[in-house]
Amino acid sequence: MTSGAPYETDPTYQMAVKQLKEAAQILGLPDDVVEVLRHPERVLQVKIPVKLDNGKIAVFIGWRSQHNSALGPYKGGIRYHPNVTMGEVVSLSMWMTWKNALAGIPYGGGKGGVKVDPKKLSQRELEELSRKYFAAIADIVGEDIDIPAPDVYTNPQIMAWYFDEYSKIKRYPAWGVVTAKPPLVGGLHVREISTGYGVALVAREAAKILWGTVEGKTVAVQGFGNVGRYAAKYLAEWGAKIVAVSDSKGGIYNSKGLDVAKLFEVKDKTGSVVNYPDVEKKISNEELLELDVDILVPAAIENVITEKNADRIKAKIISEGANGPTTPEADKILHKKGTIVIPDILANAGGVTMSWIEWSHNRMGCWLTEEEALSRLDKKMTHNFHEVYNEWQKKYSDYPMRAAAYVIAVDRVVRAMKLRGWI
Ligand code: GLU
């Protein structure tokens, strides 16, 4: 039965609900509880009129979706993208609920988005858009209410504007209202590397199970933004061989291995990894996924591993850096082939986990060193990986690993809702 909510017809939302229903079925949750879980607690839509440099006004639409707060204040990023829809934002907020529950951090799930191509705005226009968006959602966010952070095409500078705008409105420095701020205004240097580091950590742990070590294993990384580049950097540091990387302009391959420091330099100087000098061949993003490698890290966009290419994927371990890179159909095909797909809500939780460390600092006014923060992240991600892996092997091995992750996460949220008397 449809409720008439506008996000219900969105395909990404339908996929999120399908995943929820699968977990609910395994857990034996009644339909009415699923009905409670599938809807966000609140979605706010806002209008953001921006005075452009040419004197004209452009109107952008933004959303903040607050999916579930049983385990704590809503937490999740804000994305700027020309194709963002309300349905996508709602789905992503639901995924944050599961991700945070699974990570064992005291947060519910939220997500925001603005339908805009930020690359087409000047820095001044971007600042005006960011401040006005945050002012428009100021009534529903707060250190103990809803704590945004970056996501696709947003960054620490934008977080600094959000923090400043909110602090002006409230007339006190609200350090804990957003995370992944620049270090000078309450952020942590290591936040930037945390998502990629976490993606590498869980791949390392899976590699230890399969082969005893990650050393000498070959890796392909799709996407060379903040997630992909640091996943590559750490896997290389631990002795793996990065043989292929890509970004939106295409990919490169060298069977002898690519030098990650050089890749950083080329990407930063020229805008794309395709300009890396020492390559055996140029490849497309699609070809990268099907390479004969041990570990694959999809760290770019959603829905890249589908029923169309899943059969041709040769990697034994997939660590999902992006949110939603594998469709449920592809997940089943890969599971049958024996591939370990470490699901996004587990693999890319390093970012939000470091956000929690930053937020705790902001609330307490004292700081861990960078080494301490990274080692805490390592311990937490390693523990979480093995917890999910063991539950999966013990009870749910007929399903992909994602099912075990969902079951653990959904069960935690449902038990908190029961304890609080919501259901
Ligand atoms: N946007 C990131 C995610 O999808 C980080 C969220 C956060 O730090 O709150 O997990």
Explained architecture:
Among the domains are: 40-175, Leucine Dehydrogenase, chain A, domain 1 (Rossmann fold, 3-Layer(aba) Sandwich), CATH 3.40.50.10860; 193-347, NAD(P)-binding Rossmann-like Domain (Rossmann fold, 3-Layer(aba) Sandwich). Helix content is 46%, strand content 17%. It is built from 14 helices and twelve strands. The chain has helices at residues 11-27, 31-38, 86-103, 123-137, 156-170, 191-211, 226-237, 260-270, 285-289, 328-337, 344-347, 350-364, 370-395, 401-419, and strands spanning 42-51, 57-68, 74-81, 108-115, 146-150, 218-222, 241-247, 250-253, 281-283, 295-298, 317-319, 340-342. The protein has a seven-stranded mixed beta sheet. The longest helix has 26 residues, at 370-395. The radius of gyration is 21 Å and the shape is globular. It starts with 10 loop residues before the first helix and ends with a helix.
Number of helices: 14
Q: How many strand elements?
A: 12
* Structural class by secondary-structure content: alpha/beta
Strand content: 15-25%
The whole-number mean of residue pLDDT values reads: 97
- Terminal CA distance reads 20 Å
Low-confidence segments, ≥5 residues, pLDDT <50? none
Fraction of residues in helices?
40-55%
CATH topological fold name of the domain at 193-347: Rossmann fold
Task: Report the C-alpha radius of gyration, rounded.
Answer: 21 Å
Largest sheet: 7 strands, mixed
